[in-house]
Amino acid sequence: MKYLPLLWHSLFRRKVRTIFTLLAVLVAFTLYGFLAAIEAAFGMGVELAGNERLVLIHKVSIIQLLPESYLERIRATPGVTDVCHQTWFGGIYQDPKNFFMQTPVDPESLLRMFPEFKLRDDQKKAWIADQQGAIVGRATAEKYGWKVGDRIPIQATIWRKKDNSSNWEFNLDGIYDGAEQGTDVTQFFFHYKYFDESRLFGQGNVGWYTVRIADASKAAQIAQALDGQFANSPAETKTTTEKAFVQAFANQVGNIALIVRSIIGMAFFIILLVTANTMAESVRERTSEVAVLKTLGFTDGRVLALVLVESCLIAGVGGFLGLGLAGLMVPRIPTGNLLPNLFVPKASLGVGIALVLGLGFVAGIFPALRAMRLRIVDALRRV
Amino acid sequence: MWIFSGLFQTAVVTAVNLRTLTGRLAASAVAVVGMAGVVAVLTSVLSIAEGIKTTMGNTGSPDTAVVMRAGADAEMTSILMHEDVVTVKDAPEIARSSAVGSLASAELFAVVDLIKASTGTTANAPLRGVEPAAFKVRSFKMIKGRPFETGRNEVVVGRSAAAEYRGLDVGSQLKLGQNIWHIVGIFDAGGTVPDSELWCDAGVLAPLYRRGNSRQAVYVRLTSPGAFTAFKDRLTTDPRVKLKVMREQEYYAGQSETLSRTIVLIGGIIGVLMGIGALFVAIITMYSAVASRTREIATLRALGFRGGPVVISVLVESMMLALVGGALGAAVAYFGFNGYQAATMNWQNMSSIGFAFRVTPKLLVLGVGWALVLGLLGGLFPAIRAMRLPIVTALREL
Known about the structure:
The structure holds 2 protein chains of 2 kinds.
Chain A (H helix, E strand, L loop, with lengths): L3 H8 L3 H29 L9 E6 L7 E2 L2 H6 L4 E7 L15 E4 L1 H7 L3 E2 L2 H9 L3 E5 H7 L6 E5 L11 E12 L9 E4 H7 L6 E2 L1 E6 L5 H11 L7 E5 H12 L2 H30 L1 H9 L4 H30 L16 H28 L2 H6 L2
Parallel strand pairs in A: 4-9, 6-8
Antiparallel strand pairs in A: 1-11, 1-12, 2-10, 3-11, 5-8, 6-9, 7-8
Helix pairs in contact in A: 2-10, 2-12, 2-13, 10-13, 12-13
Chain B lengths: L1 H19 L4 H33 L6 E6 L12 H9 L5 E2 L3 E2 L1 E12 L6 E9 L3 H4 L3 E5 L8 E5 H6 L8 E4 L2 E10 L9 E4 H7 L8 E5 L6 H10 L5 E5 H45 L1 H9 L4 H31 L3 E6 L4 E6 L4 H28 L2 H6 L2
Parallel strand pairs in B: 5-10, 7-9
Antiparallel strand pairs in B: 1-11, 1-12, 2-3, 4-5, 4-11, 6-9, 7-10, 8-9, 13-14
Helix pairs in contact in B: 1-10, 2-8, 2-10, 2-11, 8-11, 10-11
């Protein structure tokens, strides 16, 4: 503590340089937070997807429909504990640009299958009882200002009703929240029964199944058993773990993660160079001062620590402010409809903090060692 | 008179500056690398958007149009009944040829799971069922093998798709569900959307996917680009059908809009943030450049050199560094990314679309220009400081 004034003075020996170094570090970590958020968004929650859930789709592609009758056969397969089906509705709310996914489901089996969708008990009861009811994620509800009790019109693009109209209306019975930071809170779910009874064509067909299994380590065998059951039928299936399914989807969007990582790497390399360079310079300038400190009885270790603390201080203040700024700013970036709401994942924040400390250490260690090894006689002899 | 002496002074001081630059190599290198990083990142991220826009934007020609059901925003969600198709094909604005009759192709659009060669994971490849007129409606060239024969389970593969997925060589078989398809050729659609697609006979595809005689879109070539309005009015006012008529170019440009806008937004934020970072780096570098030359500058001032030339010399130095860095970054982006083949998702059709990164001259100019702006700003404060240095204290400084 008693060294604080000393530290303060050495940091502000060149005020402008210190401030701009600090700002450069701040910007670097803001950038880091932003990139981590983008990476998470393009990863589509692959880290949240589990191996204890399987996705069963039509072998040709996910857009081919599967018979609803598969449900009981899937449920009866050994190792399967639960199953639910979903179907792509692809409707439009007011404007084609307002994209969010709408899915007809069986409410109870959906909520059992995806406990990460948190719905209040009274809303859950109301939804199950209401044939034309629907629930929506918090993000979408807030985006369009919907409240429980509202009537939501959706324009179908594929699924016309029996009266040949494309107008579907739903009662909003509940708004669900996500159990985790990355849970998808944009979706809109409504009763499959209402959907199936009202649609003009395609009765008895669903889009895909999600299957819960008791033992994740048996995922491959169970998937094989499931696909084997439907082999040589008109609708053959392909089953993968939810994780692999999401990963394949994310791969299709493009290898954004790699591009993002190289950008982070590049930005860091540059900032590291600058900070290290600035630190080295500031110590070089103070050669005679360091010598005086040593003459006054400062041990080598203490000098090393002083310089290291100085560089960690710059990295720490700049870095943590930068991460904080990213945390505040990133969720406010308008992403359009392609990406879900951005957020800085907690895991990336942890890595960010480690990087801040690493930066402080790496930038400081070389000048610190130099200062430590400095011989008083040599240093004082120089002008 | 003093204009000349001013110019002369500027030239002298700048020359001295640049000649002593080698002495400050390490610090200057940091600034150069910083600028190079900014420009490389900005240019390459924007080149992704440029690539997507080019692929989508070049698809179609002024005299081609696509007809879908009213309310559908993509082929994927469109369905046309047989009567709709007949009505469209009867329109007199459609060009005709003796070989295939009316130049209109009623098509089916399906998505099939294929394995991406790069990652080994599955991807949604578009499988399009077409009619013989399709080859006359779009720009299309077989580069390997032959076109498929009507009525047979044969497919031809776009050149991007052939590179993107496993097992699409001419002569190999493709098993989709229970159907076996023979790959008979690879075609080049000139860097447009069909390059990412697999084409087969619509008449073969329809029963296999239980589409009956319904189709999803009709692609037509009109007698002239000007005939579009008449064609559109005829079909949209016909009470028997509910149709949506778009120029093919508009249709695909619209599909790329969301995607390229998102990428431009991301690229812009990254570019600006990195730019601010690099600006601070430039400021630090130039401050220490000025600091290390404090005595030199003071001596010049004592000799009668005015403040203006000193300011300009610092600015020139900082912009030179920015220019070198910017050019370096642009070169990295150009040689590293131009033409890089990638694929992404076309959300409207839930299918994969191949494209190449395009580092255009416009982007290069943009990148280097941005570096120069940063260089100018970065040099400004240090330059003013150099000018304001009191000569006496400066000369005394170590």
